[in-house]
Amino acid sequence: MNELSLDQALALHGISKTYNAGRPNEVQVLRDVSVTLDRGEVVALVAPSGAGKSTLLHIAGLLDMPDTGDVQVDGMNMTRLGDDARTRARRDQIGFIYQFHHLLPEFTALENIVLPQLANGVGAAQARDRARLLLDRVGVAPRADHRPAALSGGEQQRVAFCRALANAPGLLLADEPTGNLDPTTSDQVFGALMDLVRETGLSALIATHNLELARRMDRVLRLEDGQVVG
């Protein structure tokens, strides 16, 4: 077993993942991947589509199980936890951002950020205050009472950022968070994300195919042929 480190927000050791194992269409997506993320560090994960970066993020975020290897979050080995404990860790310690915002269409921007807090036992007034603070930080506070359909693509994704941080996680995982936006909007929205991450002291692993965005992070890792290099 790998030694636990309290200095690391995330540590993946010897992660392998194969789909359809033992069948003719078997695909090995990840092969003995190891990644560490220090506290407060923002790391880019660069890979072409289909290279396995989403699988790696799902394993890091406790949404999927590796075939081999250990996943450590905040100094705790999560690999052998039961389902309930993994769910609690995912809810309390990890924030997720996807390429598509996945906001609940029947709720306002504010309500989309309040709901995960209520589910985590936060009082309504406190949840609304935090939601407004987060929306203000990304410049969407004036749109707080609008539903997603009334927001631009960039505004929707900024609200998704806020929702991911609603419960104050220590680790943020993002999968192509600006991938469906035009270049100008992508640059602006990514800047808002980076500002938010830096202000809150988050550790973040952000998958992107955009090398310009990747260079704005602390470090760049590349996923090639199921292994991480760089």
Automatic annotation (TrEMBL):
Keyword Nucleotide-binding listed: yes
InterPro entries: AAA+_ATPase, ABC_transporter-like_ATP-bd, ABC_transporter-like_CS, ABC_transpr_LolD-like, MacB-like_ATP-bd, P-loop_NTPase
Keywords: ATP-binding, Nucleotide-binding, Transport
Domain ABC transporter: 10-229
Gene3D superfamilies reported for this sequence: P-loop containing nucleotide triphosphate hydrolases
GO molecular function, one term: ATP binding
Protein family according to the UniProt entry: Belongs to the ABC transporter superfamily.
Protein name per the record: ABC transporter ATP-binding protein
Species whose genome carries this gene: Roseinatronobacter domitianus
